[in-house]
Write a structure and sequence with these properties.
GO terms for molecular function: ubiquitin binding. Helices cover about 50% and strands about 0% of the residues. It has helices at about 50-70, 75-85, 85-100, 100-105, 110-130, 145-155, 160-170, 175-190, 190-215, 240-265, 270-275, 280-300, 325-355, 360-375, 380-390, 390-400, 405-410, 435, 440-450, 455-460, 475-490, 495-505, 510-515, 520-525, 540-545, 580-585, 585-595, 650, 665-680, 695-710, 730-745, 755-760; strands spanning about 10-15, 20-25, 305-310, 315. The relative contact order is 0.03.
Length: about 775
C-alpha cells in the first residue's frame, strides 16, 4: 500500500489485476474506481400527491446512502471516485441546480418525512463538497497543493457557478466553513480569479436582460442601437404575460441573493466586481427597474389564489398563498439584497483600505465621495440605501480615519462646529456646566466670545446639553476613560484630563495621541497639567424637603421600605370569580380554633390545693361552690296533665274493633272520611316520608280495582276490531266490537263533517 508522508499524487499501490497478477498503479487511477451509479437529484414534489412523495423519498434515500458511503471511503479511494466517476459529479451538480432555495422552502408543502430526508441529503452534499475542497486531511493523507489545484480545475470539480450555488444553499449557518473552503480553492488555483473576471460581465448582463424584459431602456451598447419603425414593440411590466412577470421577479430575486451571499462570504471577490463598474451599474438598474416592477405587482389583478413555484409556473390552489403577496415579498427581498451588495462593495473597496491605513488613502476617499455623489440623482436608491446604512455614519467614519482633517483644524486653532448628524464617536457638543466651567481660563473665554461673530456665532449656538447639568457620558464610563489614560500618563491631573476628553469628544485614543505628540489645542495648552478634578456639588435632597397631602400614607414609597403591592393594580380591578370565591376556605380556618375547644371532654378536674385563678390559670378551673337552692323548675307541674292509666293511650287512641262496631256502611265511610280530615288537620302526626310515586300508583290502582270489585262494577272489556286473519272466521266479540265502533265513530275526531255540512246548508249558511 501507499507509504506515509507521501502525497497522494505521488503514491503507487500494488494490487491484483483482472487476470489475478499483481500490478503497480498510481494511487489516482481509473481502475481503482468503485463501480457505483449515483442517481441525479430531483426536487420535492410541489403538489404533494402520495405517489410522487413516495418516489421522492425513495430517490432521496438512494442519494443519501450513496453519499454517506462515499464519505466513509479512504482518502485515495475517495479521490479516485471524485476524479473518475462522472455520475457523482452529475448527482452533485443536479442538487446545486434543483435544490430549493431559502424563499422556496417556506412555500413548499413539505411533510415531516420529506423535510427530514431533504435535510439528510442537504447535509451529505455539503460534507462531500467540503471534503472535495480540502487538499490536506491529515499528515499522512494530503495532495500536493499545485496538483490539487489542477485536479479540481481540469476535472471541473469546482467552477464559479458551482461556488455561487454553494454560497446560496449552504451560506446560512456555515459562512466560516464556506469562506475557508472557497479561499482554499482560490489560493491553490489562481485561475479561478480569471474565471471570476470573465463571469462578472455575465452577471451584469442579467440586469440588462431584466430591463429588456420589462421594456425599459438598457444602459450599454444595446441602448445606442437604432430601432426600426416597424419593429415589434417590447411589452412592459403592465402588459406582459403574468407568467413572464413571475419569471422576471424570481430571476431578479435569485440573482441578487446569489451575488450578495457570495460577496458576503468571500470578500476578496469584491475587487473583481468593482473593477467592472458594478457599483455604477447597480444603482442605475435599481432606479429603473424597481419602481416599475413594484408598480406592476401592486396594480396587476390577481384573481385566482395562486403560488409562484421555482420554475415560474403558476400553480392553482396551493396552500392558499396569493401570487401578489409572494411576488411582493420576493421583490422586497431583492431590493434589500441590492442595497446590501452596494454597501459591501463600498466597504471592502473604499472604506476598508482607509481604515487599514494603506497607501493612496486620499484616492480611496475621493472614490468613496464620488460614489456617494453619483447616488444623488438616483432618488429611490439613495433613500433605501440611507435607510439601511446611513451615509452620515460612513462620512463620520471617513472624517475620523483621515488624519488631514483633524490636523487642519488643530493648525488653525479653531474648534470644529459639531452638528447633530455627526457620529457618536465624534465630539459631542458641549459638556456639563459643573465639568466645563473650571476648565477654561478667563482669557480663553474672552477670546472665544470675540471670535463668535456672524455665521460662526450661529453655528456655535448652544445646543442640547450645553446648559444642562448632566454630563454626556455616564459616571462609570467616564471613570473608565480616566483610569485608562492615567495608567499611561500618571503625572497628569484628573481635571486636565477631563478638559482634554471634553475637547476631543471623549475619545481616549485621540487624547493620548495628542498629548504624546504635543499637539493639544491652544485652549488646553494654557491649562495646568496637574489641575485636580473639580469637586462636584451635591444637589439638595428634594424628596426630604417636599410637602404633599399623601405624606406618610400606606403608599408613600419615599418614607416606607415595604408597601403592600397586592393593593396596587393597573387599570380596572378584576372582580373575584365565582370559582375562586367557592374555593376560598379561609372562613373554615378561622372557625377551626373555636371548634377545637369542644374536642376535649373532661369529666373531673383535679384542683390542686392553693391554686388560684388568674391570667395563667387552668382553663378548666371552676368557680367556688354555690349552695343557693335552684328553683328553676319549681313552677312546672311535671306529669300533672297526664291521663291516668296505661301510657299507651297517650300515644295511640283507643279503637273499637271492626267486628264489635254497630252501624251502617255509610256511617263507617263517613267516620273514615272524618278520620282523614282529622289527620289532615293535625299535621303533627302525619308521616313526612315521601314514598316512591310508582309504588303509590300501583297501590292506588289495586285499591281502585278492589273497590270496583266490592261494588260489583264490571270493567269494560278491551275492544278487538282487528280479529283473526282473513279466511279463518271471526268471533262474536269481534263482530260486536266492529258494530260498536261503526255506530259510535262519529262521536270523536272529525267523522261528522257531512251531517254538519247538511245542517249549515239547511240554515242557508252555504250557498247551494
Amino acid at each position: 500500500m501507499a507509504c506515509a508522508r507521501v502525497p497522494l499524487d505521488e503514491q503507487q499501490v500494488t494490487e491484483l489485476g483482472p487476470l489475478g497478477k499483481e500490478r503497480t498503479l498510481p494511487a489516482l487511477h481509473p481502475d481503482r474506481k468503485e463501480e457505483r451509479c449515483f442517481v441525479p437529484y430531483k426536487p420535492p414534489p410541489e403538489d404533494g400527491s402520495p405517489a410522487e412523495v413516495e418516489e421522492f423519498l425513495e430517490h432521496a434515500r438512494f442519494i443519501a446512502e450513496d453519499l454517506e458511503w462515499l464519505l466513509t471511503l479512504p482518502h485515495d479511494k475517495f479521490w479516485c471516485q471524485v476524479v473518475f466517476d462522472e455520475s457523482l459529479l452529475q448527482c452533485l451538480n443536479s442538487y446545486l441546480q434543483l435544490a430549493p432555495r431559502g424563499l422556496d422552502l417556506c412555500t413548499l408543502p413539505l411533510s415531516p418525512a420529506v423535510a427530514d430526508v431533504q435535510r439528510t441529503v442537504h447535509k451529505a452534499v455539503f460534507l462531500t463538497f467540503l471534503r472535495m475542497a480540502t487538499h490536506k486531511e491529515s499528515k499522512e493523507h494530503f495532495i500536493t497543493p499545485a496538483v490539487f489545484g489542477e485536479i479540481i480545475y481540469n476535472n471541473f470539480v469546482f467552477d464559479i457557478p458551482k461556488i455561487l450555488d454553494l454560497c446560496v444553499l449552504f451560506g446560512k449557518g456555515n459562512s466560516q466553513l464556506l469562506h475557508k473552503m472557497i479561499e482554499n480553492i482560490f489560493t491553490q488555483q489562481p485561475a479561478y480569479y480569471s474565471d471570476l473576471e470573465e463571469t462578472v460581465p455575465t452577471v451584469l448582463q442579467v440586469f440588462d436582460t431584466i430591463l429588456e424584459k420589462c421594456g425599459l431602456q438598457c444602459e450599454g451598447a444595446t441602448a445606442m442601437e437604432p430601432k426600426k419603425l416597424n419593429a415589434r414593440k417590447q411589452p412592459t411590466t403592465m402588459s406582459m404575460n403574468l407568467e413572464d412577470l413571475v419569471d422576471t421577479v424570481l430571476y431578479l430575486c435569485d440573482s441578487t441573493t446569489t451575488i450578495h451571499t457570495f460577496l458576503d462570504i468571500f470578500p476578496p471577490a469584491c475587487s473583481s466586481f468593482h473593477s467592472h463598474g458594478f457599483l455604477s451599474r447597480l444603482p442605475l438598474f435599481y432606479e429603473a427597474a424597481v419602481p416599475d416592477l413594484e408598480k406592476a405587482i401592486r396594480k396587476r389583478k390577481f384573481n385566482d389564489k395562486r403560488r409562484a413555484s421555482t420554475s415560474g409556473i403558476l400553480l392553482l390552489e396551493k396552500k392558499g398563498i396569493f401570487v401578489q403577496e409572494d411576488l411582493w415579498k420576493r421583490m422586497s427581498h431583492s431590493c434589500r439584497k441590492m442595497v446590501q451588495t452596494t454597501h459591501l462593495l463600498l466597504h471592502h473597496t473604499c472604506l476598508q483600505p482607509i481604515l487599514e491605513g494603506r497607501e493612496n488613502m486620499q484616492m480611496f476617499a475621493e472614490e468613496l465621495l464620488q460614489y456617494f455623489a453619483s447616488f444623488l440623482p438616483e432618488k429611490r436608491f439613495l433613500v433605501d440605501f440611507d435607510e439601511q446604512f446611513p451615509i452620515s455614519d460612513d462620512i463620520s467614519l471617513l472624517q475620523q480615519a483621515l488624519p488631514g482633517v483633524e490636523s487642519a483644524w488643530d493648525a488653525t486653532g479653531r474648534r470644529r462646529p459639531h452638528t447633530e448628524g455627526a457620529s457618536s464617536s465624534l465630539a459631542n457638543e458641549g459638556a456639563a456646566a459643573a465639568c466645563s466651567a473650571s476648565f477654561r481660563s478667563p482669557e480663553v473665554k474672552e477670546s472665544g466670545e470675540k471670535r463668535l461673530v456672524g455665521a460662526e456665532a450661529k453655528m456655535a449656538a448652544p445646543q442640547k446639553g450645553d446648559n444642562g447639568a448632566v454630563c454626556p457620558m455616564s459616571g462609570p464610563e467616564l471613570e473608565s476613560l480616566l483610569s485608562c489614560i492615567r495608567d499611561l500618563l500618571p503625572d497628569l491631573g484628573e481635571g486636565f484630563l477631563l478638559a482634554c476628553l471634553q475637547e476631543y469628544g471623549y475619545n481616549s485614543e485621540l487624547v493620548i495621541n495628542n498629548i504624546l505628540e504635543d499637539r493639544l489645542a491652544p485652549s488646553l495648552e494654557k491649562l495646568d497639567r496637574t489641575m485636580p478634578r473639580p469637586v462636584k456639588e451635591d444637589l439638595p435632597d428634594v424628596l426630604n424637603n417636599r410637602s404633599n397631602v399623601f405624606d406618610d400614607d400606606e403608599f408613600d414609597v419615599f418614607r416606607r421600605d415595604q408597601v403592600d403591592v397586592s393593593r396596587v393594580w393597573k387599570g380596572r380591578r378584576k372582580g373575584e370569580s365565582a370559582r375562586e370565591m367557592l374555593n376560598d376556605k379561609q372562613h373554615i380556618a378561622e372557625q377551626r380554633a373555636r371548634y377545637q375547644t369542644y374536642e376535649t371532654v373532661v369529666d373531673e378536674v383535679v384542683v390542686e390545693p392553693g391554686a388560684s385563678g388568674g391570667a395563667g390559670a387552668d382553663p378548666y378551673d371552676l368557680d367556688d361552690y354555690d349552695d343557693e337552692y335552684d328553683d328553676t323548675y319549681d313552677m312546672n307541674q311535671i306529669g300533672a296533665n297526664d291521663l291516668d292509666g296505661d301510657s299507651l293511650l297517650s300515644r295511640r287512641p283507643f279503637t273499637v274493633p271492626q267486628v264489635l262496631r254497630k252501624g251502617t256502611k255509610a256511617e263507617e265511610e263517613e267516620r273514615e272520611d272524618d278520620e282523614d280530615e282529622e289527620v289532615s288537620q293535625n299535621p303533627v302526626n302525619r308521616d313526612q316520608f315521601v314514598q316512591d310515586p310508582a309504588v303509590l300508583r300501583e297501590r292506588a290502582e289495586a285499591k281502585r280495582a278492589a273497590m270496583q270489585q266490592k261494588k260489583g262494577f264490571r270493567p269494560e272489556r278491551p275492544s278487538n276490531v282487528v280479529g283473526r286473519p282473513k279466511g279463518q272466521g271471526q268471533t262474536t266479540e269481534t263482530f260486536l266490537d266492529r258494530r260498536k265502533k261503526e255506530a259510535n265513530k262519529s262521536r270523536v275526531s272529525n267523522h261528522n263533517r257531512r251531517s254538519m255540512a247538511d245542517r249549515k246548508r239547511n240554515k242557508g249558511m252555504i250557498p247551494s
